[in-house]
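Pilot study result, target chain (184 residues):
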Amino acid sequence: MTSQEQIALLKKKIAKLEKLVYLDSLTNLYNRRGFTQLANNYLKTAFRVSRGRRKNELANLALIFLDLDNFKKINDKYGHQTGDQVLKAVANLLKQSLRTTDLIGRWGGEEFVILLTNVSQEDALKVARKLQTKLAQSSFGSVKLTASFGLIFPKKFESLESLINRADKLMYQAKKSGKNQIKY
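Predicted structure:
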């Protein structure tokens, strides 16, 4: 094997390892590690671009944190295999509903996080409402599904951890208010 062939083989192996490290094996979305790394890169770029602005919010970014409502009941009633199929279907719905420039991750369990880029606050709310409607109108086999959403708009120099925490709190408010809602 030539050194060029060895290098090509090593590059393929590295790409496979990166996929294992940064992608959720069930949904093929970014996992928490992959989402965090990429979202932090987006935020750093946005911070640089917004330095001269007077507003405290970062222009054109929004973060959606969503949690599937009553997911434990799905696993309990239909089994974990069906639950996994639902998670895969939700991941596909999110991928098909969002732009390639938006960042989608499975945060854990039945929680998903989305970083919308180049979006106004008005359009971010439209996206969240569209996702809410699509999930509620979709049928995943015999399973009907809704989700609760937290939608936030990053402030200048706010950490990703802070963004996630704020969006998570709003999502829990949506759950406590009856589920299948968007809080922002």
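One observation from the pilot: The beta strands are 61-68, 103-108, 111-117, 139-140, 143-144, 147-152, 182-183. A full batch analysis is planned for the follow-on phase.
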